Each structure stands twice: as structure tokens, then as C-alpha cells.
Amino acid sequence: MDISSLKFIVVFMVMGGVVAYLGDRLGRKLGKKRLRLGGLRPRHTATAVTVFVGMLIPVITTYGIVTTSKEAREVFAEGTRLVSERDRLTAEVGSKLTQISSLNLTRSQLESTIERRETEIERLMTDTVLLARQAQEAEQKLVRVNKLVEEAVREREKVESQREDALQRLAEAQDELVDAQERIGALQQRITGLEEQEQILNGRVDDLTEQFVQAQALAAEAERGKRQAEAELQRLRDTLLQLRETESNLRRTIGNMWQGVQAVRTSQLLFQRGEELARTTLQGGISPQEARVRLTALVRVANVSALERGVIPNEQGTAAAMQERVRPLPDGTVIRIPVDAQADSIVDAIGRTTQDLVMIATSFYNYFDQEKDPVPLDVGVFFNRVVYEKGDTVASMIIDGALSEDDVLNEIMAFLTAHVRDSAAAHGMIPVHGRPESLGRITFAEITRLIEQIRSHGGLVIVEAVAAQKTKSAEPLTLEFRIRQRHENGSRN
Q1: What parts of the chain have a pLDDT lower than 50?
Q2: Helix, strand, or coil (residue 384)
Q3: 369, 384, 399: which is the final residue of a domain?
Q4: Do 257 and 156 belong together in one domain?
Q5: How many domains does the chain have?
Q6: Co-location of 96 and 188 in the same domain
Q7: How, if at all, do strands 334-337 and 367-368 pair?
Q8: Do 358 and 215 fall within a single domain?
Q9: Each residue of 363-390: pLDDT tens digit?
Q10: What is the pTM of this model?
Q11: pLDDT reported for residue 171
Q12: DSSP state letters, 170-238
């Protein structure tokens, strides 16, 4: 998973969590204020508002991604155009490679022609008499040849200037690739013209050794021009590779985004981020070997929990495991934390204290049923201290005993799921993520009996939830309840 995809997932999670939290708080406040929507009962009104806010989660989340991420806006707006541009550039590069092959074939033909001319010159060197008679004519031809050479040099300088301009425009916009192609075509035409001129010159220098030397100089100049053209071609290839790499990164980003969206739309969520798979208590200060054994046992239990939840194991039979972590740095680089380093950190934390501890394995991110890798585990070590002694008050709440049974039940459930749970967590209890009964357990019979006691008072009462036994951070919290009458002047009995 790349950085952009992780950013999108984090935005999805944060926006969804914020909207869900606000919807829950709004529904809870509406339930407490007993407001009605149309003919609905108060709790049905709260449920309807909560459902409506939940419907806003994907809309607000998508809007948040588009407004906060420039990459997401570019992908949504220009993804199809970038793919079309990639196909067009690929076709142009293929055309350029064909032209280069044609130039190489022309160069081979020129070299072969020069070799033939060398043979003819050697033959003509023996005919000194003919050279003497044609000296004057050769000098005139030499003047014309020099003019042609000067024109060729000026053409080459003009071509070099055009080539530099083409390279500058190529870095600014992709339209300059078309200009570069046109210039290469023009160069090819000029090279063809030079080739024809060279054939004329070869026909005229058949009888002159000095002209042969000049022809060699022209060939060397052409070779330098060829090397410069090859260097330009290499720069064009490097630019094309960069464009291909950019296009590949965009494709991967789009693919990762699409996979993430499809997973959210079609997959079943097996584990939420931070959801607990396994926990175990242990004594701090144990040996590193024993600590590693306990860590391995915890991971095995988490693996069994993942299998029971429906996670498909990999070829090694693993459904949940600790995995390498990748953390981005502010300078754009990333650091990798291997599994061994994570395990060493956990073992070191266990050995640095002699207090009672609890080790908990949770899901590192939201895990869907269509994923192929094991559930990534995040293992944390916490102090398992005594939070409540027997009879300690966990939380208290005022309830009106004159309410109906349904309303009293709603008040009790709000008391357990909000007041008791929040107070226990604030005092250091470690709940099991995803299990609301993990803090403050109470049976249906106890709830029924509690409702009867509250309604029997017929007025405002103070309900206190107290610890039924000595309880540590990682242990289930068993509750007992005390009910006291509350008078209007604030006194109790």
C-alpha cells in the first residue's frame, strides 16, 4: 500500500468515525430530551436521526477526500485523459524508433559507398596524366564543393539550434514531442539531401586526392552529428521512461483507490481497526525467552480468532500475524520496522517492569473478507493494576422511577453503555474493542429486578453501580447496584 492510498484510507476512517460519533451523540441527546419526530416515539426518533446521519457518512467522506487531496481530484478529473496521453506517446515513440532504424541503415550505406570510393581513388592515383589535364576543372569543382560544405555546416548548426529548442520545449509540455518528431523528420529529409549531395561530390572527387581527404572530413563530421543525434535520442528515451514511470504510478494509485472503494462497497468487514483478537496476562520482569513464548502464544490465539471470524488463511495456514510496518517521514522517505524489531521492543517493555501486565493483540487496520494477506496484528503491553476494590463506586446516575418500563430500561442501558463504561475506562479498565459488555456486565434478570426497584420508589432515585469484587485492568468488571431515594431538596435516604 502506497502513501496516497494509506492517506485515503485514513481520511475515510477519520471522516466516518467523526460523523458516526456526532450521529451517535445527537441520537443520544435526542433520546434524553425525549423529542418526537412526527408520530414516532422518542427512541424511534433518535434511531431515525442516527440512521440519517449514518447515511451522510459516505457523502461527507467522499467530499472530504476530494477537497483535501489534490491527487484524488486529479485522478477523478483527469484519469482517463492521462491514459489516452500515454497511448499517444507510446505510438509516437514507436514511430521515432522506426526513424532511427532508417537512419542507421542509411549510415551503413554511406560507409559502404565510402569504401567503394576509396578503391576507385586508389585506381585513379595511378593515372597522374589525367589528373594534370583536369587540374583546373578540379579546382573549380573544389570551390563549389567548399561552398556546399559551408552550406552543410550552416545547416548542421541550424539543426543543432532547433534540437536544443526542441529539448527545452519537451521539458515544458507534451506537445513539444510532436514538434520534436517533426524536426526529426526534417532532419531526415536534410540528411537525405546531404546524401544526394555527397553522391554528387563523390562523382566529382573521383580524380582528386585532396577531395578524398575532404570527403573523409565530411564523413567524420557526419559521425559527430550522428553521435549528437543519438545523445538527443537517449535524452528523449530518458524523458519517455520518466513519463512511463509517472503513468505507472498513476495507474497503481488509481488501482489501489479502486480496490479500496470496491472493498468498502462490496466486502464484508471482518475486523475494525483496533478490534481485539486476543489478550493474555503476565508478570513483568520475566526472562526474554519466556516473554517471546508468551508473545508467540498470543499470536496463535489471535490466529484462531481470525479463523473463527472467517478469515481465509494463506498457503502457510496463517490468518493473523505481526507484519512489517512502513512509516513515512516528514522528508518524504520511509522507514521499515521488521517483525523482529517489533517483537524485541515488546520483550524489552515486559522486562523493564515487575508489575502485572496484560498483552493485547488488535487489528492494525480495517480488514475485509476479500483481502488475501493475514490480518495485521498490533500488539500492545499495558499495566494490569487493581482499579476497583470490592464495593467501590464505578458510576452513578439519577433516574425517574415514574417513567414507563421502556423509558427506565433506556435510562439503564444509557447508564451502562455511557456512564459506567466511560468511568471505568477513565479509571484504567481496558475494554475489549467491539464488545460493549466487556465493561460493566449485567444479566437480563438483574436488569429486570433493577427496573422493578427503581419504579417501586415512584420518584427520582440515585442508581449507583459498584464493583462486586476486586477487579484489575484486564479483568471483566462485575457490577452490583445500589438505589437511593433522591428528594427534591437534594437530601438522600
Answers
A1: 434, 436-438, 488-493
A2: coil
A3: 384
A4: yes
A5: 3
A6: yes
A7: unpaired
A8: no
A9: 988 888 878 889 999 998 999 888 899 9
A10: 0.44
A11: 61
A12: HHH-THHHHHHHHHHHHHHHHHHHHHHHHHHHHHHSTT-HHHHHHHHHHHHHHHHHHHHHHHHHHHHHH
